Amino acid sequence: MAAPGLAVQWDRAGAYVWRRNEDGVAERAGLVILQRTDEVVLVEGELKPGDVIVSEGADRVRSGISLPRLERHERESAGAASVSSHGAAGGEE
To answer: What is the tens place of the pLDDT at every residue in 37-89?
Structure first.
């Protein structure tokens, strides 16, 4: 899986991203970093293709807060959006 570098956060338990669950609230998804470039991080862990993750402002997200639902056209151009589906791109692990 590939995730935007800015989406990856760290705490005592390790690397993670904030994912929007089925109820529209933020939940932590733990990761293992496989490779990192300037903008993209290759990861494995609790993400699956199609997951919507927070790509900007992740440092302000807390577990259980409501995250906005983005329509498909908004997700596709979510470079400046707070929530993006770009983080759960499939690929070789």
So the answer is: 988 999 999 998 888 999 888 888 999 999 987 655 344 444 333 344 444 44
What is the residue extent of each domain of the chain? 2-88
**pLDDT given for residue 50 in this prediction:** 86
Read off the pTM.
0.73
CA distances from 21 to 4, 25, 31, 39, 53 (A): 18, 6, 16, 24, 9
CATH architecture of 2-88: Beta Barrel (2.40)
